[in-house]
Amino acid sequence: xxxxxxxxxxxxxxxxxxxxxxxxxxxxxxxxxxxxxxxxxxxxxxxxxxxxxxxxxxxxxxxxxxxxxxxxxxxxxxxxxxxxxxxxxxxxxxxxxxxxxxxxxxxxxxxxxxxxxxxxxxxxxxxxxxxxxxxxxxxxxxxxxxxxxxxxxxxxxxxxxxxxxxxxxxxxxxxxxxxxxxxxxxxxxxxxxxxxxxxxxxxxxxxxxxxxxxxxxxxxxxxxxxxxxxxxxxxxxxxxxxxxxxxxxxxxxxxxxxxxxxxxxxxxxxxxxxxxxxxxxxxxxxxxxxxxxxxxxxxxxxxxxxxxxxxxxxxxxxxxxxxxxxxxxxxxxxxxxxxxxxxxxxxxxxxxxxxxxxxxxxxxxxxxxxxxxxxxxxxxxxxxxxxxxxxxxxxxxxxxxxxxxxxxxxxxxxxxxxxxxxx
Length: 423
Description:
By secondary structure, the chain is an alpha/beta fold. The chain has three domains: about 5-220, Rossmann fold, CATH 3.40.50.620; about 230-325, Tyrosyl-Transfer RNA Synthetase, CATH 1.10.240.10; about 340-420, Structural Genomics Hypothetical 15.5 Kd Protein In mrcA-pckA Intergenic Region, Chain A (Roll). The protein has helices at about 5-10, 20-25, 45-60, 90-105, 120-125, 130-135, 140-145, 150-155, 165, 170-185, 195-210, 245-255, 260-270, 275-285, 290-305, 305-320, 330-335, 360-365, 370-380, and strands at about 15, 30-35, 60-65, 115-120, 185-190, 215-220, 230, 235, 345, 355, 385, 390, 395, 405-410, 415-420. The strands form four sheets. A six-stranded mixed sheet has the order 1-6-5-2-3-4, with helices on both faces. The protein has a five-stranded mixed sheet with strand order 9-15-14-11-12, sandwiched between helices. The longest helix is centred in the middle third of the chain and has 16 residues, at about 170-185. The protein is elongated, with a radius of gyration of 27 Å. GO terms for molecular function: tyrosine-tRNA ligase activity. It catalyses: tRNA(Tyr) + L-tyrosine + ATP = L-tyrosyl-tRNA(Tyr) + AMP + diphosphate + H(+). Keywords: Aminoacyl-tRNA synthetase, ATP-binding, Cytoplasm, Ligase, Nucleotide-binding, Protein biosynthesis, RNA-binding. Its EC number is 6.1.1.1.
């Protein structure tokens, strides 16, 4: 398949400018995608454009990841109901630095079609207002600018649209022109909400430089429930492991709705038609085993955090269902695995020496109503510490705590509690 055929099969070809297919088939092209530095980390909503650049590169083209260090000071109104809070220059520069490191996971920066990073602050930071209005603004009519969906929807809202955000499409169009003139960039990709900005850039290249720019946009992803992809009750799902741990990241994909799983396999992984079709058939035959979700979680977590982190996340998930070694996990991951389990904090000093009697610990953790009940449960094999059965006369010491910080108690098959050792 050609690149566009592959994108179409994956459900990622929302719209394109005329003659894009012929342009891509005519030789090695340089394409860019912009990333808005509103935070110091990308989130899963950025995966499609990042993978879009990676797919272009694998098809033999040169990708440019443009960090909007300059436009980030303004804010893109596309898809926004209200104006963004303006950031300081220091904030934008710090965020741009964080994003650069994450994009390097997806793109190859070596070889004949090596990827390149760019920052539009390099040319926007020194642009004079009068020169910009004369050289760029004269090529745009207010009629055309207000006809863009991203602008029109805001003009019709109660919030309205400031001139600052109204000017954003001129800045993004200028980005395309500058890169076309400096580095031969002829293609811009993005989400479907960027179509107006991308076509504005192609128009500017034609009017100001007599050249031809091309655009390709991918659909904005929603889930089967119709809500925006990538949002959870806890907020955004980040690519930074300090914001969203590999275990939490893995669980996000594992919990994908059955109706979305096959589509997400196409959009967010490198798996081809044969592999996806096989997983789809397996999912239809044994839906409770969730083979599509497991493959999705494994593939995306490996891509973002590495194979070792993906394996650890899988192992942690098995622990939740009693099919793994609890002591193989660190205390932080244990806390995430049993996030919804009740927990109790006890002084670490109590676990020194002979430790805390098991029956006392289960009562204090709320898993047994009395010591008598705890003893009866232990005699029947119903009490476990770190998933190992314990006797009623046993005690828990500091050496039993995972990482010296956490002990996992279990009553029966599904009742858990965490004991955290406070120091």
